[in-house]
Fold this protein.
Amino acid sequence: MPANEEGSEQPEMRELSDARTFRALAHPVRLSLLETLFLEGPLTATEAGERIGESPTTCSFHLRQLAKYGFVEEAGGGRGRARPWRLSTVGTSYSNVHDDTETELAAGALTRLLRERALTRYRSWLETKASYPADWRKAAGDSELVLWVTPAELQEINQELLGLLLPRYHERLSDPSTRPEGSLPVEILVLSYPVVPPAKA
């Protein structure tokens, strides 16, 4: 885990690979807590509950579950529900393809829930973008491409896109002091999938 200048540890990306962890994460309240801690944390269960519309008791339970699976940790200070929590990871990565059916189904369920939440945020942007300054409206993108590629080429495209974005901006995820003035959290969705099934052999 990387350290900042003072020597304190910074969160890092988390690789997911087992069915239990996928199922533990695939819960709307837990995802809301992770999203809120990412944007505003550290927060207590009470503070997080105020932001996501859940009770402190509910948030406390789900924060403990997230801690059990290594997604959050106590930030230090406070007692009981007044204990602040912070992320122990700034993001996750995983494959939807697994050798066993149980893990593949659990990964698929998490993916569907994550994409539904992302598309809800996208619809919210479309409905509210008139309230944003012109420079943000101009900068936001909405592109659609159809490319004729092989599976190997598609995998290469996805890896190249991640290789372009993550090294350049990853530090800003965990260290707010590196974020330029005027920056906002921006969600970038890269969805790549065949639009017709392959020909039968």
About this structure: The radius of gyration is 19 Å. The chain has one domain: 12-178.
